Amino acid sequence: MSQFAAKRLAVVGLGLIGGSLAKALRETGCVEHIRAYNRSAQSLQFALQQGIIDQACSSIGQLCEGLEAGDVLVLGVPVLAAGPVLEQLHPAVEAGVTITDVGSTKSWLVAEAERVFGEAPSNLVPAHPIAGSEQYGVEASRADLFRAHRVILTPHANCGASHLERVRELWLACGAGIDEMTPERHDEVLGATSHLPHVLAYILVDLLCSMEQRGEVLRYAAGGFRDFTRIASSDPTMWRDIMIANREAISSRIDEYEQHLDRLKAALEDESAEAIQEIFERAQATREAFLKQSEQSS
Amino acid sequence: MSQFAAKRLAVVGLGLIGGSLAKALRETGCVEHIRAYNRSAQSLQFALQQGIIDQACSSIGQLCEGLEAGDVLVLGVPVLAAGPVLEQLHPAVEAGVTITDVGSTKSWLVAEAERVFGEAPSNLVPAHPIAGSEQYGVEASRADLFRAHRVILTPHANCGASHLERVRELWLACGAGIDEMTPERHDEVLGATSHLPHVLAYILVDLLCSMEQRGEVLRYAAGGFRDFTRIASSDPTMWRDIMIANREAISSRIDEYEQHLDRLKAALEDESAEAIQEIFERAQATREAFLKQSEQSS
């Protein structure tokens, strides 16, 4: 069981993840007061009406008013917006407040914190909950979004142990499992398992929609296509940011992907049924192993 | 309502599709006797015990014994096996029996029929039910697999009108909707909507399983990855056959895909957030339109 308890939770950027975190912590009863600031006032009003938050703030300044040591401030904004938000937090938040985020790339956040603060501050704990959906916005938020999901904490060199522990407890309270790795390692691994698949799905739909037979093509797209491209319904702005922030790792993965694709193309040109089957069988076996592993761990 | 009724249904290759077709027609009561031949005797015994078929045949010769005009013979074998099966059917089946198939590529079948029969026979009606699953084998078959799904009929130049009509009625009886196009057009369209996505999913898993951090990578693969790669759990033999049989269309689609991927790569290299967002927004909008369209048609 988690020991997490806090007087105040403050959320900048109340989307699917920020909203779900507020709901999850509200449900546990371990936070007394939840406040949020969001660029779109509509999301804030919705959250207020639904009782997801107690206070809708009209500025980051107001959000930071009266925050004390022990309170937690969560960045729920798209990855590239984190830097500008940190600039505003820098003069406004006292050092005892734990600052954490939920972004899908981590080295970028640390670099931005170094730019803004001189060095990454000890109260900043970069984190990434591996949960989500192609849906987005606070309207789609769910209290159980993180239950039985992994959250990766990526402490930087200057990260304070007590702040790290606090963020760990926060996520445990939401029912998540915790892992830890460096920001660089995180970006490598997620570049392969999450960012690359999103690229591939977006590009497939991009190709189909450029085809002359576009209408016919979509008419005969079946369930496999629907599942395959589900992630291409994800928020374009959020994913644009991830692309830019994790540019190098993603570029490397795309290059490697094309090399593997070219190997299949060569096998096709040679009509080498054996080589094709070998690739497919290895992939199928790997995926089955993945499914077995995720059943065991859930 | 469908007018379909037949004395005998004969199935060569009792997998997911052949088995589901037998179950669906059995449920409607419009077929008196269902017989099947399959390379694996185990599948036949299973189907016999489950009452999916009335007779398990030990050879294609036995399967064809006593078939009469008005009976229907269905090829449920992998695409590349259809030619060799047609060679055995050629001397054994009388011309009044309607022969149809369920394969995912159509030009190949017509070419094989021309090779075996001299010209594609009038009683051969190529068909492709756009339904399936990453599961396979008769054990996974379901009577409702085709309900509210499209079946594409791809008549060749010599196709007999009465046989075409018969196959149309057969699929209507299973609850499917019917479309018609040329074999070539079918292979173009399905190359984009089905074959290419399978390639992309297999190759993604192939890449991940070749990575040094393979274990870690799979550990952090989340729901998006699971959906994206579902089709990489499909039968490798079946898909190897589809690759070979629709080689040219698939190669072209892969080339086009790489061109679109390269455009994204260039935008990444230029750090052009705008170009990236444009691609993602177009893809997202296209997929949403696809979802709306498929809701309306189902």
Explain what the structure shows.
Chain A is built from 12 helices and 9 strands. Chain A is an alpha/beta fold. Chain A folds into 2 domains: 6-180, 3-Layer(aba) Sandwich (Rossmann fold), CATH 3.40.50.720; 186-297, 6-phosphogluconate dehydrogenase C-terminal fold (Orthogonal Bundle). In chain A, the strands form 2 sheets. In chain A, strands 3-2-1-4-5-6 form a 6-stranded parallel beta sheet. In chain A, helix 4 (82-89) links the parallel strand 4 (72-75) and strand 5. In chain A, helix 4 (82-89) packs parallel to helix 5 (107-117) and helix 7 (183-210) packs across helix 11 (247-269). Chain A is elongated and about 70 Å long. Chain A starts with 5 loop residues before the first strand and ends with a helix.
Q: CATH superfamily membership of the largest domain in chain A, which one?
A: NAD(P)-binding Rossmann-like Domain
Give me the number of helical elements of chain A.
Answer: 12
Approximately how much helix is present in the residues of chain A? 40-55%
Q: Give the beta-strand count of chain A.
A: 9
Share of residues in strands of chain A:
5-15%
Question: C-alpha Rg of chain A, in Å?
Answer: 21 Å
Structural class by secondary-structure content of chain A: alpha/beta
* CATH topology category name of the largest domain in chain A: Rossmann fold
CATH top level of the largest domain in chain A?
A: Alpha Beta
Overall mean pLDDT of chain A stands at: 93
| Shape, principal axes of CA atoms of chain A | elongated
Task: Write the H/E string of chain A, N to C.
Answer: EHEHEHEHEHEEEHEHHHHHH
Tally of discrete structural domains of chain A: 2
Main sheet properties of chain A: 6 strands, parallel
Largest interface: A-B, 92 and 92 residues
